[in-house]
Amino acid sequence: MSGETGSTPPKRPVPGPPRGLILAAGAGRRLGRGPKALLVRMDGLTLVESLVLALLDGGCRDVTVVTGACSEQVARLLAGCDRVSVAFNPDWSSGMGSSLRRGLQAIGPGIDVMVTPVDRPGICAAEVARLIAAHRPRAITAASHCDANGSLHRGHPVLFDESWTSQAAAAAHGDVGARDLLATHRAVVDLVDCSDLDDGADVDVPKDLHRLTVVSSRD
Q1: Of 11-15, 89-93, 148-152, which one has max mean pLDDT?
Q2: Which residue of 76, 78, 173, 216 is 20 to 30 Å from 26, comparing CA positions?
Q3: What's the pLDDT tens digit per position in 62-85?
Q4: Helices (H) and strands (E) in the chain, counts
Q5: So what's the pLDDT on residue 149?
């Protein structure tokens, strides 16, 4: 007998691969080309297809795509894709916050979730894999990228430990998403430099369309 009087506390289960969440509900009004999810890159992939491949090839177990504007077109595009589901957000016009809440609701609690908006053409499988490898239990892990001055800035994707997903959903509002949560709890946010893989830029206005010329990477 060891003489121990207390029982060993149960260990937290080792989490499996995270689930991917793509926020693809916007109408792309500032861009003027329709929903960004349907923009076609130089390699022939739409933005939503390229992100689905990056998340799955990088190690996510499956991917949920939140749709809104032109939801039927996006759903048809993804129909038959293995390990991909679509969640329609009826409140998509209220901003990204409602899409984040809808996506996390569709995935459910107790699961690590990697989140990205659909307008990031540079995200690749190697970047996703790097975040998963760097992730610590109970932390939030975010890709970061250097600007022209060499300063590192938090970007996407962002990997939320399952202990943070409900708080991320509760904090989401308007077009903010999880930005306020990340700023408030920056002590638990691990930044992973991915500048060698992706410049972190989005496609938001017409002058950004040149970013669709990125070459697909499935490393």
Answers
A1: 89-93
A2: 216
A3: 999 999 999 999 999 999 899 999
A4: 6, 7
A5: 86
Residue 117 contacts residue 51 (beta carbons within 8 Å): no
Provide long-range contacts, Cβ within 8 A and 24+ apart, for 56-59: 56/20, 56/83, 56/84, 57/125, 57/128, 57/218, 58/124, 58/125, 58/126, 58/127, 58/128, 58/129, 58/131, 58/132, 59/17, 59/18, 59/128, 59/129, 59/132
